[in-house]
Amino acid sequence: MEKQPSFITQARREQIIEATIKALDEIGYKSISLAKIAKIAKVSTGLISYHFSDKEDVLNNTLVYLLKKQYDYIKEKVDESKSAYDQLITFIDTSLAYQGTHYVHNVALIEIIFNARTPDNIPYYKVSDDEEDPLYVLLQEILQDGQKTKEFSTFDTKNVSIIIQGAIGESMLMNQENFNLEAYKNELVTMVTKMVK
Amino acid sequence: MEKQPSFITQARREQIIEATIKALDEIGYKSISLAKIAKIAKVSTGLISYHFSDKEDVLNNTLVYLLKKQYDYIKEKVDESKSAYDQLITFIDTSLAYQGTHYVHNVALIEIIFNARTPDNIPYYKVSDDEEDPLYVLLQEILQDGQKTKEFSTFDTKNVSIIIQGAIGESMLMNQENFNLEAYKNELVTMVTKMVK
DNA sequence: ATTTATTTTGATCAGTCAATCAGATTTTAT
DNA sequence: ATAAAATCTGATTGACTGATCAAAATAAAT
């Protein structure tokens, strides 16, 4: 039986993870150092090594933390809707809204996904599979449900998931000044409706 | 008047840039070093410094090189089509095809865009504007043309450009094994047709 | 053939950083 | 109160890397 980590350990780990997120936003993956994380978290560098096996372990845990937060946020909202169509719109709305409300988290997510590599040196963005990624699974399930209930027409749910996720993801990369998130949301909802109905 | 770089200089610079692309694919932006680039290019580290001001200069020139290659490839094909609709389909086809034929170039492009930062530490992916990016401009022009000639319905060309570019870009990140690029291309063309017609 | 300019090498230097660890501090158990 | 365990610090170490530069090799000019 595994021993539960103490509350102090849990709190420290979260504190270090939050500092890592902030550091990723400020200086990026390439320049991040344990010293920088320690400074933001206001702890010593040694403490990071005490709570994590190494730097990679810190970043892996930060990635898991970020993915879970994002998924939980979206999943909770989607579950409030009943029809497949409403769920689909909620999925889009919430995904886009998350970018506004959790901007720094999104930046950190991008920084890790496009830099972290598996032990055999394969980048995460090449690994991340639409069959593993819970958000992809959720979106595909919504589309499949809609086809079952005849709300949606016939199309390949996997490919349409990729189109929608791509359209959502692309807006993350938009320059905030020249970009009207609300207008984009409306346009995307209109277009997705044309696609699936 | 500026002196033209000699042929040797031009050839060496391209050799180093091609080695950089290969290195980015192999070990990624984070781990890339002048020593690694030098090893792949089969030259000494000092030679890189002789032809480029610093490491950042190497990567900036590699980015420009990659963007130009991609744009030229797509632009040439698009210009062969006449109607706006044909151009739009060609744009999608060619963009997706480029990923297949120039896979390593695409990986290198991703590695740089999501890591390189401006002197004031702003990531390129936050800078890259749909108003500057030639590919975005090209796509928006196609959409605007189609609206002028009544081939397309009314919609916001900027936002729809983002949707289409997102759908194209997302497929770059797909695991090659479980992903049928040809089927995706067909689905995307179908969906984009529904969107713009 | 000789001088001058260009190109290339690889050793060296200075700086950075991840990881370690001996010892200090705090918490928990007895 | 005391011992044991857990938590934390910050200096140190060893490895790595970008950039420099003196000297060598090559090419071009005279």
The counted number of beta strands of chain A is 0
Radius of gyration of chain A: 19 Å
How many H/I helices of chain A? 10
Please indicate the percent range of residues of chain A in DSSP E strands (runs of 2 or more): under 5%
Q: In CATH terms, what is the architecture of chain A?
A: Orthogonal Bundle
Overall 3D shape of chain A: elongated
Descriptive report:
- Chains A, B: GO terms for molecular function: DNA binding.
- Chains A, B: Residues 33-52 bind DNA.
- Chains A, B: Keywords: DNA-binding, Repressor.
- Chains A, B: This is Transcriptional regulator, TetR family.
- The structure is a homodimer of 197-residue chains.
- The first copy, chain A, has one domain: Tetracycline Repressor, domain 2 (Orthogonal Bundle), CATH 1.10.357.
- Chain A is built from ten helices and no strands.
- The first copy, chain A, has helices at 7-31, 34-41, 45-51, 55-78, 84-101, 103-113, 124-127, 134-148, 157-172, 181-196.
- The longest helix of chain A has 25 residues, at 7-31.
- Chain A is elongated.
- Chain A binds chain B through residues 27-30, 107, 110-111, 114-115, 117, 121, 123, 125-131, 155-156, 159-160, 162-163, 165-171, 173-175, 178, 183-184, 187-188, 190-191, 194-195, and chain B through 26-30, 107, 110-111, 114-115, 117, 121, 123, 125-131, 155-156, 159-160, 162-163, 165-171, 173-175, 178, 183-184, 187-188, 190-191, 194-195.
- The first copy, chain A, binds a DNA duplex (30 and 30 nucleotides) through residues 6, 8-9, 12, 33-35, 43-47, 49-51, 54-55.
